[in-house]
Design a protein that fits this description.
The complex is a heterodimer.
Chain A: H1 3-12, E1 17-23, E2 26-31, H2 36-45, E3 53-61, E4 69-76, E5 83-90, E6 99-101, H3 110-121, E7 124-126
Parallel strand pairs in A: 2-5, 6-7
Antiparallel strand pairs in A: 1-2, 3-4, 4-5
Chain B: E1 11-14, E2 21-23, H1 26-35, E3 40-44, H2 48-56, E4 79-83, H3 91-100, E5 106-110, H4 112-116, E6 137-139, H5 146-162, E7 168-169
Parallel strand pairs in B: 3-4, 4-5, 5-6, 6-7
Antiparallel strand pairs in B: 1-2
Classes of the chains: A alpha/beta, B alpha/beta.
């Protein structure tokens, strides 16, 4: 359905396109990060594309890849009825150096989506007017949706009170009535 | 702990045409008044709020238990209903609300998320409100059934009457259909089936 649009972008950005495919009818283009903003500006402004809407912008973490974070955007044309997915990979294997151009100047809706992507993955969007955490608090250390963030690590915003004496309460005890329940510091073993 | 009791210290000594009298202790009288005049502050953050609306609506109606008046200012309330998941960012707000309430203050954790974090075992969620504020009654369930909430409210009233501040958990009721003690007749599922 969006085959023509995909080919249009490929022909316009030949030097910057790393690959293209379609999955379940969603046409996808993999770009070099240097062409990220230019390709989106083309999709927004060209009369054959006219993608007025940035549906989604997010990041996927592939910890085993050399270039670790994959920034994904979905653009949609309300007037022409086609959509396209764009991908670009940034960041080294340690998660450093993950910089990509911000799309805020093209779509205002990119503002919060990029802030969320920064909050959760630590990808920096160059040119963003206000790149702060949006869901978590400023004191939070790290980026929780990175695959190397410990799944059960919590960083309380206010200190927890001493809850000794409530472990005895079934069904909210150490194992919460289940052997696979939450492990607390009072439980033995398992926790290193 | 966690059990409803019906022990009372009061006794009616003489009944009359309108001039009878009763004796009690002042502490019991005050507790009796407190337990039937709970002013609640609903701290509703998640889907359990639907169940809270259901139980406060006319069908289940916890107004029957003297917990009628919701007060949307913590300064006028003494029962804090924590209804739903508390995130780390919400925890300081909850703590401040608790501190602003009138003493003596009671906290009821409504549902599994408020009680222990539920299945949210991650960076964002507080694993139970008792990590932040002391909690009197836990009502498990995701969400709890209205009967469970009513049990929790009655358990809290019982604890207020007894002056008991240890935390209590609402126990599951036994299914009436399988409770042999009640002698309930099995439900007739199909027309013409043997009972």
């Amino acid at each position: 359905m969006s085959k023509a649009l995909q080919e249009l972008v490929i022909s316009s950005f030949q030097a910057h396109v790393l690959g293209s495919h379609a999955q379940h009818g969603d046409e996808t283009i993999v770009l070099k990060p240097s062409a990220w903003k230019a390709a989106h500006a083309f999709l927004r402004n060209d009369p054959r594309a006219r993608c007025e809407m940035l549906t989604d912008l997010t990041v996927v973490d592939f910890p085993d890849r050399e270039v670790r974070f994959e920034v994904v955007s979905h653009v949609h044309s309300l007037s022409l009825g086609h959509r396209l997915r764009l991908k670009s990979s940034v960041g080294d294997s340690d998660g450093e150096d993950a910089n990509i151009d911000s799309l805020t100047s093209l779509w205002a809706s990119a503002n919060w989506q990029e802030r969320e992507a920064y909050d959760m993955f630590g990808v920096r969007f160059v040119g963003h007017p206000d790149l702060r955490r949006i869901l978590l608090y400023p004191e939070f250390v790290g980026h929780p949706l990175r695959k190397d963030y410990p799944a059960q690590k919590i960083q309380p915003l206010i200190p927890f009170r001493d809850v000794l004496g409530t472990e005895k309460l079934a069904p909210f005890g150490v194992f919460e009535g289940m052997s696979f329940g939450r492990q607390t510091e009072h439980s033995d073993g398992v926790e290193e | 702990m966690g059990e409803l009791t019906h022990r009372t210290e009061s006794a009616v000594l003489e009944t009359g045409e309108g001039a009878g009298f009763a004796t009690t202790r002042l502490k019991d009288l005050v507790s009796w008044a407190q337990k039937y005049s709970l002013f609640m502050y609903p701290f509703v953050t998640a889907c359990c709020g639907m169940e809270f609306m259901s139980v406060s609506g006319p069908r289940f109606d916890f107004s029957r238990f003297g917990s009628e008046a919701p007060r949307f200012s913590p300064r006028q309330s003494d029962l804090l209903w924590v209804v739903g998941t508390i995130s780390q960012r919400q925890a300081p707000i909850l703590h401040r609300i608790y501190e602003q309430m009138m003493a003596p203050k009671y906290v009821l954790a409504f549902g599994t998320c408020a009680s222990c974090g539920g299945f949210y075992d991650n960076y964002a969620t507080v694993a139970g409100v008792d990590k932040v504020i002391p909690c009197d009654v836990y009502v498990p369930g995701c969400p709890p059934r209205p009967e469970g909430v009513l049990d929790g409210l009655m358990l809290l009233q019982d604890k207020i009457q007894r002056g008991d501040r240890t935390p209590g958990v609402v126990k599951p009721r036994r299914d009436p259909a399988t409770n042999q003690e009640l002698g309930v007749v099995p439900l007739r599922r199909h027309k013409g089936a043997d009972v």
